[in-house]
Amino acid sequence: MKIETFVGLHKTLCDDARALSQRKGHDYSGEADTLKNLKLAGAAGLCTPEQGVVVRLLDKLSRLAELDKPGAEAHVADERVRDTILDIINYACLHEALRMERKAHHGDTEDTENGEGQEATEDELCGRTG
């Protein structure tokens, strides 16, 4: 696959993952705090929210590994392999959001500053340049 083809696929997957994340975020947490449902494990004293996301990621990776086996067939008809890939993208982003929020609340600005002592913009944090 040529790099241009891959980059186009990457953009499509990330665009689709972003749209899915917006819909699911609303359903899981409403508008006030899109990370609310992920923080419940921490509030219950089970694990950190980040660790909870890692468990969810491991579930998705396990499903992907099973469905990639020769002759494997999904038994959940409405969730394709592509849906699992979109979920993996979103859980990785949710993990980063939780990590950044935790660092910001604890005064650790290592990853949330732009190098000039100022809080980085959303574009800078997401690696977008303009």
As a percent range, the share of helical residues equals 55-70%
Round the Cα radius of gyration to an integer and report it.
17 Å
The count of domains is: 1
The profile of the biggest β sheet is:
none
Walk me through the structure.
With 130 residues, this protein is mostly helical. It has one domain (3-111). It is 64% helix and 0% strand. The protein is built from 5 helices and no strands. The chain has helices at residues 3-29, 36-43, 49-67, 81-105, 122-125. The two termini are 28 Å apart.
Characteristics of this structure?
130 residues; mainly alpha; 5 helices
Summarize the topology:
Elements: H1 3-29, H2 36-43, H3 49-67, H4 81-105, H5 122-125
Helix pairs in contact: 1-4, 2-3, 3-4
Summarize, please:
The chain is built from 5 helices and no strands. The protein has helices spanning 3-29, 36-43, 49-67, 81-105, 122-125.
